[in-house]
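Treating backbone geometry as a discrete language has practical consequences that deserve illustration. The sequence in question and its structure tokens are set out directly beneath this paragraph.
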Amino acid sequence: MPLIQMSLMIHAPAQLCFDLSRSIDIHMQSMSQTGEKAVAGRTGGLIELGETVTWEAVHFGVRQRLTARITEMEAPRRFVDEMVQGAFQRFYHVHEFVPQPEGTLMLDSFDYTSPLGVLGKAADRLFLESYMTRLLRKRNEIIKRIAEEQVKSTS
């Protein structure tokens, strides 16, 4: 059961970071290398509490679908998405936004269990955990870039 945790300082208000993080459109932009797109549920705009989104993407040469639901939301501080259906046995993804004097500290915690028992655990060690870490890091960097550009353009 890997737990991927990251933090990133963003020089932008918490509300902006919160909204960009739950934007379906920004998510698709940040995952363009996998061809990820929203195909069911909420397919654009800002996902809200109780809503689902089904993503379709190519990972490791295989087209996959994954459905996640927003199960907790405390705007603009925190939201949680959990897998409803997909390739993982389960995942629980916490997004937190902590106001700081210079902006927002964005905290990301992705707790997941791979399928296939011992084979899944081996896949985690060999490649999956590092692959997921890279995807999350790229997504967070794009959110940071967009948020900071928006702040600059309104200053």
